[in-house]
Amino acid sequence: YLMASALGTIVVVQEYGAMNPVSLNQLMLQEMTRESVQAGAKLTQGPTTRKLADGKELTGIRAEVKTRTDTADFEIVGFGLADRGLLFITRIAGEDAATEKPLVDKFWQSLKVRFRPD
Prior knowledge:
Oligomer: single chain
């Protein structure tokens, strides 16, 4: 699933039905930032967690990609069970953070994770 704004902010939700995707955080960050890093951007990253209103805790990576003229903030977190799960990816351009962060904050505030029984 994809939510995107006209300014380039994105929220991606990937559903996995045969595996727990939590271990894919680093791979996903690498894929999302590969071209920028190859072009000389500086990537800084660290661990992050997101606690949802229903008490579930998502773990992952928060990262910043900085070029000479632009900055983009990424957050990649996941939640999973033994054989299924969800991966959440957000990207906000630094120059648009003031106007776009409320959109992403609303997504996180309203997010509830429920899996249907098998």
